[in-house]
Design goal:
single chain; alpha/beta; TIM Barrel; 8-stranded parallel sheet; two-stranded antiparallel ribbon; 12 strands; globular
């Protein structure tokens, strides 16, 4: 079996009309026709962290290739260790897992594996996050990180028909200086980037910490987005800063905005798109007496919502189809609303207008014949 066959084998996921639960069981889909419609629909994805698609099987493969020993007996033991109850506990697992990414080929294989999974689920366009600070501090060269991912992107477009772009994320709980160093190291490769983002632990690290970084990125022709995770301290203040002060082009998560009619009105006036990941942040709990479903509330508020898988390798290996099916059931999404979400996605692409129109046309053709 050659390398490409190995990666494609890892890309085979899921059973049609079934949703895997986090515990590994299979939950029946109450509306198989709607599930089939979702699976066949052309899609985009904007909130997916490449390092968060690093499945346990690939971790073991990369560890063997790089001569590393992992502290787990097997894949099942590794997956059983993915236990978290908040963002910090999740991030500890997430950052530890990416240590197996050592060489250019590792980043290629990681990106190709995700793109193969996405293409198999009719994703025709994706904008993917990556966290270079975590790799640079281990001595991995930026050229190897971006080079491997870019090579995979080109191969996947040619071989699988999925188009993609790359967003450099600043790890907000590391220093502003390390973020600027990562940006400076990446700018020689800016032709392979479409934007910069802001992820990791928001507590104590508001968006304005990265004002200079965003300004430099924009000066170099890059778009800007920022995570505003749900139910965080000062979350509405941070959403306001991102929207009105830093003038971000998109917001990732951002569900708490529904608690502020003023901010909703600003986001609607600016046409801001929100990349919502209901698997991890689909409910407002800490700030509400009664839990609020984020997707339903944002849709009802008239916001531009897209749905993505976030870090699927750590979230029950639920990629975009399963995430959409689960969201449709939990948030009572109609077929028309699912189409609206898909339209929002293509309209939000950081692409020329003609390219977005072509993708929207593919969606409309599918809806017409489905």
């Amino acid at each position: 079996m050659d390398r490409r066959d190995f990666i494609r084998g890892l890309a085979a996921t899921g059973t049609i009309c079934a949703v895997p639960t986090r515990g590994g069981a299979v939950a029946p889909v109450s509306d198989p026709a709607l599930a089939a419609f979702i699976r066949g629909m052309p899609k985009s994805e904007y909130h997916v962290h490449l390092e968060g698609t690093l499945e346990a099987e690939m971790k073991f493969a990369l560890a063997r290739r790089n001569g590393m020993n992992l502290p787990f007996a097997d894949v099942a033991a590794m997956k059983a260790s993915y236990v978290y109850n908040d963002l910090p506990s999740f991030l500890a697992i997430y950052y530890d897992g990416m240590k197996v990414l050592q060489k250019e080929q590792d980043f290629h294989d990681l990106a190709y594996a995700y793109l193969a999974k996405a293409a198999a689920q009719n994703v025709i366009y994706a904008e993917m996050f990556f966290d270079p600070q975590e790799h640079l501090k281990r001595g991995v060269a930026m050229a190897d990180v971006i080079g491997g991912i870019t090579r995979a992107r080109r191969e996947a477009e040619r071989q699988l028909g999925i188009r993609s772009q790359l967003i450099l994320c600043f790890v907000r709980d590391l220093t502003a200086e390390s973020a600027m160093a990562a940006l400076d190291a990446a700018l020689p490769f800016k032709a392979d980037l479409v934007g910069v983002g802001l992820d990791s632990d928001e507590a104590g690290h508001p968006p304005e910490k990265f004002r200079e970084h965003f300004a430099k990125a924009r000066a170099n022709g890059l778009k800007v987005t920022a995570h505003c995770d749900v139910d965080q301290a000062d979350t509405l203040k941070n959403i306001r800063t991102a929207l009105t002060d830093l003038q971000v082009d998109r917001i990732d998560h951002g569900g708490n905005i529904v608690q502020s009619p003023e901010l909703v009105a600003i986001a609607r006036a600016r046409g801001i798109t929100f990349t919502v990941c209901p698997t991890f942040s689909g409910t407002l709990r800490r700030t509400e007496k009664v839990p609020v479903d984020v997707v339903r509330a944002m849709m009802d508020a008239g916001l531009n919502v897209t749905i993505s898988s976030d870090d699927p390798a750590y979230m029950g290996s639920e990629y975009i189809d399963d995430v959409l099916i689960r969201a449709a059931e939990r948030s009572s999404l109609t077929r028309a609303e699912l189409v609206t979400i898909a339209r929002n996605g293509f309209a939000a692409a950081w692409l020329p207008a003609a390219d977005k129109a072509a993708m929207l046309a593919r969606l409309e053709a599918y809806v017409k014949q489905a």
